[in-house]
Amino acid sequence: MADRPTTLLAELTHRCPLRCPYCSNPLELVRAERELDTDDWKRVLDEARALGVLQLGLSGGEPLVRKDLEEVAAHARRLDLYTTLVTSGLGLTRARAERLRDAGLEHVQVSFQDTDAAAAERIAGIGATRQKLAAVALVKELGFAFSVNVVLHRQNLDRIEEIIAMAGELGADRLELANTQYYGWGLRNRDWLMPTREQLERAEAIVAAARTRWRGRMQMIYVAPDYHETWPKGCYGGWGRHYIVVTPDGRALPCHGATGIPSLEFTSVRDRPLAWIWEESPAFRAFRGEAWMKDPCRGCERRAVDFGGCRCQAHALTGDAANADPVCHKSPHHHVIEAAVAAAHDAPVRYREAAPA
Amino acid sequence: MTATPATVPALWRLARLGFDPVRARPVLLYPEGAVLLNDTGRAVLELADGRRTVGEIAGILGARYGADVLADVIEYLDELEQRELVRYG
Question: Could you tell me which of A104, A266, A310, B63 has the fewest CB atoms within 10 Å of its CB?
Answer without folding.
Answer: B63
